[in-house]
Amino acid sequence: MKKKKAPGVLRLQRQRAAHIMHSKYPVEQTSKAGRIAAESRFEKQLREQFPDLDDTEIARRAAHLRQAAYAELAAKGVAARQRRQTARDSVYVEVQPGLFLPAGQIPR
User: Fold this and answer.
1) Which of 21, 53, 54, 55 is buried most deeply by CB count within 10 Å?
2) Do 63 and 51 form a contact (C-beta atoms < 8 A)?
3) pTM assigned to the model
4) By three-state DSSP, how is residue 101 classified?
């Protein structure tokens, strides 16, 4: 029976393996499959919606769809950072002995 390793040990082993892999191969080779999958996702979505479009138009629209997706990710990142900053800056209230919550998150 295999002995389970602690999560910290597994993380370090995987991190070491990743560093070794990246030292052996160029980044273009290691990330090629992921880039292809990401690119084809947008094209596939458009081909399902608009099966009659030619390849040039699909590529043009896929580029815009990709930019929109990245803009959405960026907006979500900004919102998450703002929430974290607000939580850090907000006033904490002791709702029970030893339990502090931000003033805006007090259960009623």
Assistant:
1) 53
2) no
3) 0.59
4) strand
